[in-house]
Amino acid sequence: MSIDLKTIKHISKLSRISVDEKKAEKLAGDLNSIFDFIEKLNELKTDNVEPLTSIAETTLKLRSDEVKSKNLRDQVIKNSPKENEDYFVVPKVIE
Amino acid sequence: MSDITKQALSELVENIKSKKLSSSEVTKAFVERSEKSKELNAYITEDYANALNKAKKFDEKPNLDLKLPGIPMAVKDLFCTRDLRTTAGSKILNNFVPTYESTVTQNIWNEGAILMGKLNCDEFAMGSSNETSFFGNVQNPIDKNLVPGGSSGGSSSAVAAQLTPITIGTDTGGSIRQPASFTGTVGLKPTYGSCSRYGIVAFASSLDQAGPMAQNVKDCALLQEVISTYDEKDSTSIDFKRNKYSKELTKDIKGKKIGIPKEYRVDGMPKEIEDLWTKGIEYAKDCGAEIIDISLPHTNYALPTYYIVAPAEASSNLARYDGVKYGFRAEGENLIDMYEKTRSEGFGAEVQRRIMIGTYVLSSGYYDAYYLKAQKVRKLIKNDFDDAYKKVDAILTPSTPSSAFKIGEKTNDPVSMYLNDIFTVPVNLAGLPGISIPAGHDAKGYPLGLQIIGKAFDEQNILNIAYAMEEKIDFKNNITDWWIK
Q1: pTM of the full structure
Q2: Ramachandran bin of B79, using left for φ above 0, alpha for ψ from -120 to 50, beta for the remaining angles
Q3: ipTM for the whole complex
Q4: CA distance to partner chain B, nearest, from residue A92 (Å)
Q5: CATH of A5-43, one of 1.10.287, 3.40.50, 3.40.1710, 1.10.20
Q6: Closest CA to B139 of B401, B444, B440, B480
């Protein structure tokens, strides 16, 4: 398989990571060598194998639905790069 | 007391308990040695003044019943520490100061230990050499310009150089065991669900585990006893009966069945590793263990599986870094532009690479071919171990396919870097515990490690085997303090 520049641009858009031409070319090279390595899995027949979705074979514990931590507004907002009173500030979204 | 920093954890605990040493004396000694060791670049954030204050407070009213009374400790910078910057080795978290504490570190402070600072690591724990850190390379105290392994490279360097008596790391594909092997130290990756993941910066949530890194097995057992607790704040934390790992530690492993998997004899494995393994088998026999040949037929498929599962989970976990709620933000013309520039400037090359792989394998049209396939192979890998454990109590392998390499040697070839984790990755995929102990040196004098893999929740057994073998191996780390002028 081969990942071309168009695919790299598409993945970068999905990943919300901007890439310029030079970076795209480097990424295409790297990803191709990694996927060549990953292709090894195709040697295995897995039609009748159940996928492993959780390594801990326990059912999730239930807990009572009660508030345990409250009044965390200041803590939640403390690390924001830009805020205004109780709100996170982002670039204008609606014209 | 001659050289405090040369003492291992258990010795320091004993000396503080018997009042031969105060916490202040011990903390001062490790802070001074850390300050003289800046060239190793083991720390990202130092918190020495606070540590000395806390030690003073401890000495005023010492509680000597605790397990880590007044013991100073630096920890990997992947654990959130309240009011102390936590970066995960990334520019994107360069200014992040948590308002809460990880469960694992809280458990450590509850037993009387004192935080000295945060240790360097690969960015978001993605790396095997500590070279992906935004905060620069870490030196291995074994030799100049040698990598300390990764991702817990600051942790392994700091323990080997005795800047901290003991530490904790995290292990997603080998990030505790491989650096331990590269630095002649002991590192335990516990069973998935043994240590809470609450407050640990997430990489791949079905694989991540915290664990102790120490100078010897006894210290490792003591710290495991402290950090392993059931935690309702982590939905994958498992409520099982935990041993008193340090109290129940024994060298009596007579009759234990230890498996030797033939598939770990990989192509191109250096003869030194082969010889080390053979020697390890002899040591285990000397301890009274029974050696049994076993097969783990899907071993060769573990790394390709890992490089689908781990990036897929990482791409999802790292979606939260958007420049809005915390961390670095780059200015953009609009919201999308801001996201894209923030992530492009905030993440390093390896992290971006893995996010892209993960996004690709989860994207429409490719999910079945990659992610679902990997989950199925992961099941086969786990089945291999389940079958093996019908015949044996533990498995013995080398920890790594080589000794530590030079800084820069493998940075241009991601796949050759990934191959470092060939012996450790299957253990994470199967959720099992594994411990690396130093077992010898190569021709260059660099340390080599052996790995003991256990059944799920059977940490006590592999600690015991490691404890017995440690005595037979009688490893001496050759640290010359070359970085201290």
Answers
A1: 0.97
A2: beta
A3: 0.95
A4: 7
A5: 1.10.20
A6: B480
